[in-house]
Write a structure and sequence with these properties.
There is one protein chain. The chain is an all-beta fold. It is about 0% helix and about 40% strand. It has a 3-stranded antiparallel β-sheet with strand order 3-4-5, with no helix packed on it. A two-stranded antiparallel ribbon has the order 1-2. A hairpin with a 2-residue loop joins strand 4 and strand 5. The termini are far apart.
Length: about 90
Amino acid sequence: KEKRTAWDVDMSDAESKLKTELWIMNADGTNQRQLTHFNIPGFPEYVEGSNCIVGDSTWSPDGKSIVTCVFAMKGQRRSSRLVRIDLP
């Protein structure tokens, strides 16, 4: 029998504070690098006035890029988009 799980998260209290970014590092924890800056003013990908959550990421088959879903919350408005990040 197949096992599945599902969940629902009530974010009504955390919504105004929750922000995440995508980071990469070596398996041993060294060489930590921030890949996204959706919540940091002054960067090209900054989403003004929104709290962004980066999630549901996956590597490309060749390991040269990551695709991630970015959720933006601005008041009662919600949006999401897929973003490809090419690795150096």
